[in-house]
Inverse folding.
C-alpha cells in the first residue's frame, strides 16, 4: 500500500524545532523505517520482502525512521549506491525492542560511569543508536536531532528473517518530490509524528526531550497527539483514561479543546459500547464549538437500534433527550444508509490510516 503522505509545510508546523525526538510514520502496531541502496540490493529486497543479493550481513546497517533524514543522507536518491529508497515496515514491539537494546555510538557519561563500561556494553550489543542534526528538505541543518539505529550480527540476521514485515520501493515518490525541493508549497512527504516509547525507561535512556503537545497553540497538533496517544481504535484497558480525559475537557465548557474531544469521542465510538453514548452526548453539548465539531453519529457506535433501545431502557431525562435527538435525526435522514463501520472507514481515510 502507498505510504500516507501530507504537505510538508503542514507537517512542519507540528514538529518540534529542536531537541531529541523520534519522528516516524507509525501506529499502535507498526513503524516505518528507511534505507537506501544500489539497485541490485534494493530491487531484490522489494521483490522478495527481505534482503539477499548483494547485501552484506557482516557489516553494520543503519535504519532511519525519519524520511527527510534519509533524503539528506541519500541526496534525494541521487548519491551513488543509494538510488533505491526502501520503506521497511517493522512491528512497533520490535522497533521499541531495538530502542531498548541500543547502545550509544559514542561514550555518554550520563549513561555509563566509565568509558570502559560503555565499551563493555558496545561489545555485547548488536544495536547502536546515534543522534545527528536533522535537516530540512533543502539540506539545511536544523536544531532538532534525528535518530538512526545501527544493526549487526544476530540482530541483523533476525531483522531480515523475523523483524522485517514488509519492504516497499518508494523511489518513485522520492523522484517526484525531489522536483519540489525548491518549491516547498508543493512538496509532500510521508506522514510522520512523534513516537514516544511506551516504556518510560527507554525514553529516559534515549534522553528524549519533552514536547508537551498540549501546550502547542496549533490545535491540530493537540488533535493528533490525542489520536496517537491511544490509537484510532484504542485498547480496552485505555478506555477509562479516555473517559477521564474527555470528561475533563467537557467540564471546561467553552475552554475545552474541541478537536481533542472529537478524537476521544471517536475513540469511544470505535468500541461500540452503548454505555458511552451519554458521555459523548455530554461532550458534544459542552459548548457551541463542541456541538459543531463532534459528530452526532458518534453516540451510535453500537448502532442506531441498539442505542435507542438502551436510552429507552435507561429512561432518565438526559437519556430521553438524547433518544429524541437520535429519532429526530433518523426521521430527517441523518442515519439513512449509515453504518458505524462506514463512519469509521471515513475517519481512517481522514487521518491517513487507510493502510
Amino acid at each position: 500500500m502507498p505510504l500516507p503522505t501530507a504537505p510538508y509545510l503542514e507537517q512542519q508546523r507540528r514538529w518540534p524545532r529542536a531537541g531529541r525526538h523520534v519522528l516516524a510514520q507509525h501506529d499502535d502496531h507498526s513503524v516505518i523505517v528507511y534505507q537506501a541502496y544500489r539497485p541490485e540490493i534494493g530491487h531484490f529486497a522489494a521483490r522478495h520482502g527481505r534482503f539477499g543479493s548483494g547485501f552484506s550481513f557482516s557489516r553494520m546497517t543503519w535504519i532511519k525512521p525519519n524520511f527527510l533524514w534519509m533524503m539528506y543522507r541519500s541526496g534525494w536518491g541521487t548519491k551513488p549506491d543509494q538510488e533505491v529508497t526502501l520503506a521497511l515496515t517493522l512491528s512497533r514491539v520490535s522497533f521499541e525492542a531495538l530502542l531498548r537494546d541500543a547502545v550509544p555510538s559514542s561514550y555518554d557519561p550520563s549513561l555509563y560511569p566509565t568509558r570502559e563500561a560503555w565499551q563493555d556494553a558496545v561489545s555485547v550489543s548488536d544495536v547502536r543508536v546515534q543522534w545527528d542534526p536533522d535537516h530540512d528538505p533543502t539540506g539545511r541543518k536544523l536544531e532538532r536531532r534525528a535518530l538512526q539505529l545501527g544493526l549487526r550480527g544476530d540482530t541483523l540476521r533476525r531483522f531480515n528473517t523475523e523483524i522485517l514485515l514488509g519492504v516497499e520501493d518508494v523511489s518513485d515518490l522520492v523522484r517526484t518530490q525531489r522536483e519540489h525541493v525548491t518549491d516547498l508549497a508543493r512538496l509532500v512527504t510521508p506522514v510522520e509524528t512523534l513516537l514516544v516509547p511506551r516504556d518510560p525507561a527507554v525514553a529516559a535512556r534515549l534522553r528524549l526531550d519533552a514536547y508537551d503537545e498540549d501546550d502547542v497553540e496549533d490545535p491540530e497538533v493537540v488533535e493528533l497527539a490525542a489520536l496517537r496517544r491511544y490509537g484510532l481504535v484504542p485498547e480496552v484497558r485505555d478506555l477509562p483514561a479516555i473517559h477521564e480525559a474527555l470528561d475533563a475537557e467537557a467540564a471546561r465548557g467553552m475552554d475545552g479543546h474541541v478537536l481533542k474531544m472529537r478524537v476521544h469521542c471517536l475513540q469511544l465510538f470505535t468500541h461500540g459500547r452503548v454505555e458511552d453514548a451519554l458521555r459523548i452526548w455530554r461532550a458534544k453539548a459542552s459548548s457551541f464549538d463542541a456541538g459543531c465539531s463532534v459528530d452526532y453519529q458518534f453516540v451510535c457506535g453500537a448502532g442506531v437500534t441498539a442505542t435507542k433501545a438502551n436510552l429507552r431502557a435507561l429512561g432518565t431525562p438526559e437519556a430521553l433527550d438524547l433518544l429524541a435527538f437520535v429519532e429526530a435525526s433518523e426521521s430527517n435522514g441523518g442515519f439513512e444508509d449509515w453504518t458505524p463501520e462506514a463512519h469509521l472507514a471515513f475517519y481512517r481515510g481522514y487521518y491517513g490510516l487507510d493502510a
Observations:
- The first strand starts at residue 5 and ends at 7.
- The CA atoms of residues 258 and 293 lie 7 Å apart.
